[in-house]
């Protein structure tokens, strides 16, 4: 296939060629970045919460009048614990994908000068550590005497189990076991490290701080009440949750059951990511519409060129060109235009990504998105040009002898 | 002339139906996508208090001893600072605001206790923010002073508890205090819930909660200190509060102050007043830094909090990029369409049509495509907004196409195609008559 005649033909249609190449360049830039945004969001949605989501449910009872929290805990825990199918029931202040309960800034010295970051405290009563199903990486699980009473939302002096991510942030390169940190005057000593434990919602510092959390054992009481963790077999969990909601309404008339919060952790997770799912859908819609419009543009212009060159095609056919020669001519022409477009498009894609990085705190576009975008547009171009090219190939040689 | 050109345009469009349809489709899809997101932007970014927002200000002083002058002050104030500034009554109107959950019971109604979000504020709140009343009215400054047990409820709550009847004069039990209902609001849905906006810079772009509904229960700020002592939500605390001290003395920021200042001299006077207050508190030893005061007007405060969710802004940019691609597409197709008619244009030029006339005829054709694309774009915008309303966001119920955005849909569509038609029309008007005639 000779490219030179194609180039000279394109030079005669410089403007149209340039326009379609520009359209492809823009499409390439938007396509690469939209795909990247989708993958980035999906990636964040696959965050490992570190807990056995499918076996866990949260029951939240708001004590908005002056009720006796100790009594409320006792009533609800004994009711939940005796229900058929419940493996364990315990008190905890928050669960992943639920409401924030203990978000606070910590320091690495008692004077409060070395700021460590804003983290989330999970304060859980006896049984909650095992119920969550946290994976220990270092240290041992909390023992009975690790559970201490609280006079505030965290104990004054307690052991803490931090996530690996938090340990690496606070004490990079050193053994976190035995390290200390403070929250105001409250003192904590690291007794163990868990593989993962996501904070309830997003962190202040973005995705990098998503697992900055610590589990602190505490005894249920006035400051640790109203929020319960129920563990059951995954297949029995929906039934257990229904029963548990009904039972809590009955035994705790002094509290109001928080229905939207009293759900399985898997449900809380899907609600938490609802907005991201919606955004992913929108991005997919835009990509589909984008490819469609680009393809339509190629079809339109190629059809126009075919119509315009009917005579030339007829002459070529009369001079001995085969149908496949004509077909390949238009395919090659399209390949050249798309190639020009994507060459510019890759530069634009990077520019757009830099702008997104600056205004939306997104990471850099990985390089392998560019060749994927290029291949997709090449294929799209070839598909779009197919119908006009076949029409061109079908032009009979006799056209050469007719005048228009 | 106009009618003739229009007729020519329709004739030409009818001649190549497929190409015409492609162009209209491209414009409609591009306009539909961008007008959907622009309408959402328009609704989320609009002025919640048109005509008055420039006179509404949000002063802040910084009582946090762990801060210094180079940091932004916290988004709310501690009780004492806010109440001191309010009690000076230096502004034309001023409202204190604190919030918290409360148990609500309507005596004689067969409805179990509800948990509702409560707003504790001062009497100016209603006049300053143009709050519409269905029955009764807000409380007076006297009530603020006397800690009267009165309450204003939302239209929603009135429908739920009293079937929408005039409930003024009836009793509502809040927590364990009986309150007399003095007012029922009309349906009121400020967007965003501007007086509640704070902490946007910590939200990571997810600010859709700023478009939530107003609180169902409103009581005098002073009464709130009696009946809801210690239960107001703090924004943040610089120390963990001692459970044995009153919330008013806690090291926490939990009170907002909004002021209305009617002219520029009052604004600068109030700015000075806030700065002087901070300096005075530093002299008294309550503050350890005093240069950190702010007073933004309402719109600046909303901007500072990035009220429009970053997802919405991203969608808007995406849609505009998409529209640009559609326009490139249209330029290419129009070029193809006009130049295909080179022969016809040549004949018309040879018969005496000026370049200008050919140019105008081509533009007319582009505008017609724009109009038809606008109709398609309008329908697609309605579809897009319907999809947005089905999204699980706080602002979903606010989204609808108003008259101005409806007109903008067509204006944008026609303007976009005219822009896209400029170059092809120019090329068409350059067609040399003689050359074209030869090939006929």
Number of strands of chain A: 11
Q: What's the SSE pattern of chain B?
A: HHEHEEHEHEHEEEHEEEHEHHHHHH
- Main beta sheet strand tally, sense and closure of chain B: 6 strands, mixed, barrel
Distance between the termini of chain B: 28 Å
What key attributes describe this structure?
heterodimer; A: about 400 residues; alpha+beta; 2 domains; 11 strands; about 50% helix; B: alpha+beta; six-stranded mixed β-barrel; 14 helices; about 15% strand
Q: Can you put this structure into words, describing what you see?
A:
The complex is a heterodimer of chains A (404) and B (440). With 404 residues, chain A is of the alpha+beta class. Chain A is built from 11 helices and 11 strands. Chain A has helices spanning 4-12, 14-45, 69-82, 128-132, 164-170, 237-251, 265-272, 274-308, 310-318, 323-360, 369-393; strands at 56-62, 86-91, 103-107, 115-124, 136-139, 157-163, 180-183, 186-194, 213-217, 227-232, 256-257. In chain A, strands 3, 4, 5, 6, 7, 8 and 9 form a 7-stranded mixed beta sheet that branches. A 4-stranded antiparallel beta sheet of chain A has the order 2-10-1-11. In chain A, a hairpin with a 7-residue loop joins strand 3 and strand 4. In chain A, helix 2 (14-45) crosses helix 11 (369-393). Chain A is elongated and about 100 Å long. The two termini of chain A are 29 Å apart. Chain B is an alpha+beta fold and 440 residues long. Chain B folds into 2 domains: 2-45 and 309-439, no CATH class; 53-304, no CATH class. Helices cover 48% and strands 15% of the residues of chain B. Chain B has 14 helices and 12 strands. Chain B has helices at 2-15, 17-44, 79-87, 124-128, 141-146, 155-162, 221-227, 264-283, 298-304, 310-340, 342-350, 355-389, 403-429, 433-439, and strands at residues 56-60, 93-105, 114-121, 133-136, 150-153, 171-174, 177-185, 217-220, 236-237, 252-253, 256-260, 294-297. Chain B has a 6-stranded mixed β-barrel with strand order 2-3-8-5-7-6. A two-stranded antiparallel sheet of chain B has the order 9-10. The longest helix of chain B has 35 residues, at 355-389. Chain B is elongated. At the A-B interface, helix 2 and helix 8 of A face helix 2, strand 2 and helix 10 of B.
